[in-house]
Every structure is written in structure tokens, then in C-alpha cells.
Amino acid sequence: PTPQNPPKIVPTPEYRATYGDKPVWHGYRRHHKGSVPPQHARKACLRRGRHVGNPCPICRDRNLLVDFRNVKLLDQFICPHSGVIFHPIHTGICMKQHKRLSQAIAQAQAHGLLWLRIPFVPVPEEDFSNQHAAVGKTPPAPALRGSGQAWYPWYEWQQPPAAEVARMRRLYKGFLKENYPDSPPS
């Protein structure tokens, strides 16, 4: 298939014989050394024109073309519950094919061929007012209190000690205006 010719739709007889009803990536296992599988996807399955190890599920099958019109193939790489594209570690595809898949899925969603799956979250029917025990000790808002009263008791203006006022007047005598009030401005 070429970009000019539309790709074959995934459930062809050849596809069903090879994969059955399972996704392309089902049962894929990447070759690796040691007992612990790699924690990151490989960059590409081709190095210097040759396949590396066990190629990813898309690179190993030449009949699979990643295209935005091939919705059945793209749908295999999207989580049916959340609508999120599966991580390449989960599906076993290389990063090059994952990037192509992500672009094709976005293009298919933009063309309306794939649904933008947004999970439905019901609105809880709980009481969201602040009339419960967790906020019972919070003082009422300033608008709810009488005018002229502070929200918190420590916000209320208190007269500083007379000795401290006299000391500050001596220190800043040259900078103070005459007849400076002893009470706060309102």
C-alpha cells in the first residue's frame, strides 16, 4: 500500500489468519539479554537497513500500514476505557512507530474517524457547603461579621506601648509630620 492508494482495512483474510481477533501486539515479546525485560522501548527496529532482534509488531508485518484511514488498526493501540494511547512498553512497538501511530490517531480524531474518548465522571451529589466539621472552626467571612470588626481577633488594631511610641518619636523626630495622630487611619 502507498499513501495514494487507501490501505487495506485490517480484518482481511490474511490478517485474520495471522492474528485472529486479537490485536497486532498481543503476545509479542521483545528479545533481550538477561531475565529483566528492558524498561524503555527501542528507538527503531532498523539499524543500518537491517532489523534489530525481534522487530516490533508493526515493523515485522509489511502489510500493516500506519495511516489515519486504517481505523481498525489504530483502535487496537487505544485503551477502550480511558481513550489514552497505550505506552510503547505495553504494546512492544518501537518509538519510531509509536510516534507515527500517535500522529495517525490524532489525525483520525481530527477527521472524525476515531472518537475522542472522554470518560464520563458523574457529579457527586455530596454537599459542598462549608457547614461540616472540617470547616466548623473557620471564622465567618468579613462580610458576614459586623462592620468594623476584624476577621480574626489578632487583626484588630491595638495601641502600642507608650514607651515604644515615645522611643520611635525620638528616633524619627526629623521625619514625622507635626500633630501625627496616635490612632490608626480609617
TrEMBL record:
<protein>
    <recommendedName>
        <fullName>Small ribosomal subunit protein mS40</fullName>
    </recommendedName>
</protein>
<dbReference type="InterPro" id="IPR040054">
    <property type="entry name" value="MRPS18B"/>
</dbReference>
<comment type="similarity">
    <text>Belongs to the bacterial ribosomal protein bS18 family. Mitochondrion-specific ribosomal protein mS40 subfamily.</text>
</comment>
<dbReference type="GO" id="GO:0032543">
    <property type="term" value="P:mitochondrial translation"/>
</dbReference>
<dbReference type="GO" id="GO:0005763">
    <property type="term" value="C:mitochondrial small ribosomal subunit"/>
</dbReference>
<dbReference type="InterPro" id="IPR001648">
    <property type="entry name" value="Ribosomal_bS18"/>
</dbReference>
<dbReference type="InterPro" id="IPR036870">
    <property type="entry name" value="Ribosomal_bS18_sf"/>
</dbReference>
<dbReference type="Pfam" id="PF01084">
    <property type="entry name" value="Ribosomal_S18"/>
</dbReference>
<keyword id="KW-0809">Transit peptide</keyword>
<keyword id="KW-0496">Mitochondrion</keyword>
<dbReference type="GO" id="GO:0003735">
    <property type="term" value="F:structural constituent of ribosome"/>
</dbReference>
<keyword id="KW-0597">Phosphoprotein</keyword>
<keyword id="KW-0687">Ribonucleoprotein</keyword>
<keyword id="KW-0689">Ribosomal protein</keyword>
